[in-house]
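Predict the 3D structure for this chain.
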Amino acid sequence: MLDTGTSHVDDIGKLLASRQPGHSLPAPLYTSDAVWRADCEVIFGRHWIAVGVACDVPEAGDVIALDIGLASIIIVRDDDDELRAFHNVCSHRGARLVPPGRSVVGKLVCPYHQWTYDLDGALALAPHMGLDFDRALHHLKPVALRDVAGLLYVCLSDNPPADIEELAAIMEPRLGIYDLRNARVAFEQDVIEEGNWKLTMENNRECYHCAANHPQLSLSFHAADFGYDPEGLTETERAEANALLDAYASYEEYWHKEDMSFAAVEHTVGWVTNFRTQRLIIAGLGESQTPDTRAAVQIPLGQADKPWMGDVHLWGINSWNHVMSDHAVVATAVPIGPGRTLVRTKWLVHADAIEGEDYDLTNLTSVWTSTNNEDAHLVALAHQGAMSPGYRPGPYSQYTERALDEFASWYVARMQANGYSA
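Done. Predicted structure below.
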């Protein structure tokens, strides 16, 4: 096996080519520093990456700065109410302009030499550079940015993939009723998972582990939604699976009547911009992903005031989203090292919803804060195993882990298409 210190492009290409279909990846693809850097270059540098929500920056002058692999970007709302993204790099000598997190500014001012930029990225002031200095040549370097129904995606490449239009065409009408652009971030949680980003995404792509590890989340999830071995069901489980099929027939009739898109759309293997979406039934009382499965927020999102709207779920390259009538859960995963991943989760509510009056924060957030912490433990276990000399790629379940096989296949194909072939 190639060691985790390998750095040659051909070596990474051989690792990718050695991946057996239907199985997890060779260990160095999870653990190698060189592979992590290649992932930052290819996956996080040349693809559309989820970074946040439009309501992160609701007013002119609002700024959010965040790291994407080895890069740092700024997202700002300018004086014309337009969202813009730039590399977080001063055009003078490359200093970081803005620290990580949120801030409010009139202009972007480099702390090093006070070069000053307008919110549209134009250089407004460069002290001591002389009368013949052309400020127009030294604007901030822009980053491609797309607002898809209030979910923000960026691409660091100068040639971003065109199929972001497919995502927008499907999700704008599907999410429009929730008006996420004008929602509010009620809470944000950062969790550092001690594992490779691909293990984070694999963990999110299946619910094989849910019943044993997510007691709260399992109250609002139907396990059968995520696959099952039809030959291995008990009579009780078979009855539950059949009852769920009957429920979907009724729900889908209602969703169709109410003009709510619900069918699964899978743009995974063979697509550049990887995503999957579907409207799912919420278990229990069917209203929301809360401890009692009732709506947590009295004011619905946007115009989402119909009953039984379910959970519009959306998976992406580095993200997962659950949009319900009362609130949305928006999560992104960004690699910060070969064995460390930042998982950032935001809970969105109606802009007018008031904490303590319209919702209780603990009730709103407890299911997914618990789930995130439980997942962090599982991802760490998986990464520890990948570091072990006893690791060997294991088979994915054809019933409950098909999405993992598709994700691994997509990853290998995208890396090979971008120069990492044997």
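Residues 361-386 form the longest helix (26 residues).
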